[in-house]
Amino acid sequence: MRARLAVSLLAAAVVWPGAVYAYRPFDSTDAAVADNGAFEVELSPLSYRHDDDGVAWIAPSARFNYGFAEDWEAVLEGQAEHFSNLPSRLTQAALSVKGVLQAGSLQEKDGWSLATEASALLPGIHADDGAGLELTGIASRRWDWGTIHVNIAAELTRGRRLGTFAGLIVEGPDAWTVRPVAEANYQREFSISEETSFLLGAIWKVRDRLAFDIGFRHAWVDSRPDDQIRAGLTFDL
């Protein structure tokens, strides 16, 4: 009942007028935030995952951004996973504050855009027991040929262990209507587990405030495969 209730609440939040982010379809994010007073919705109505637990349908995965001040936003995120032989679960829940420390090419200025994000890692339902903290440094830069985003994070995991995360996103030219994208990540919970992942995909910019995305992600979690097909959209309200 708790899992179904959480799924229903998350789905309702997705369609609620005025509801609002990371950066689809990636695990890392960019050094940009929602405009002051604006809501941004990052939504995947349906995605696919296959790992040691079997096949899971992720419906939905959502991130909501609200620009509460100039160069600052609040972020609420999470996803519901459904299995044929296991209870549904709510995972990857987090509440974050993200701010731009240095305006750069993502803000239509010269040089690197620099940002930081502080996250409270929230308990899930039927998964992700406990709570944790994460602090991420983000650097982004855009050129005519494309854009890169670098993420470095330190984490106190939900299991009360230290962890680290490093991510790199490479995008094609921003002027292209459909641009290819790629991502490489490394994540480690010390003395417990490590994960390496790669993603290939594309982002279709329909207009300034609407974009669709698709990506295929392959990961090795302690040498075990984890495959995902991600699809979704990002829009402002």
**What would CATH call the class?**
Mainly Beta
- State which percent range the strand residues make up: over 45%
N- to C-terminal distance: 31 Å
Anisotropy-based shape? globular
Please give the radius of gyration in angstroms.
17 Å
Q: Could you give the order of the helices and strands? A: HEEEEEEEEEEEEE
Query: What is the strand tally?
Result: 13
Oligomerization status of the protein chains:
single chain
Helix/sheet category = mainly beta
What is the overall number of helices? 1
Mean pLDDT rating: 90
Q: What is the number of independent domains?
A: 1
Largest sheet: 13 strands, antiparallel
Q: Which bin fits the share of residues in helices?
A: under 10%
CATH architectural name: Beta Barrel
CATH superfamily: monomeric porin ompg
User: Which consecutive residue ranges, at least 5 long each, have pLDDT under 50?
Assistant: 1-22
CATH fold topology: Porin
Structure characterization notes:
- The protein is built from one helix and 13 strands; from the N terminus they run H-E-E-E-E-E-E-E-E-E-E-E-E-E.
- A hairpin with a 2-residue loop joins strand 12 and strand 13.
- The protein is mainly beta.
- Strands 1, 2, 3, 4, 5, 6, 7, 8, 9, 10, 11, 12 and 13 form a 13-stranded antiparallel beta sheet that branches.
- The two termini are 31 Å apart.
- The chain has one helix at 2-15, and strands spanning 39-44, 47-51, 54-69, 72-83, 89-102, 113-121, 132-142, 147-156, 162-171, 178-189, 193-207, 210-221, 224-236.
- The protein is globular.
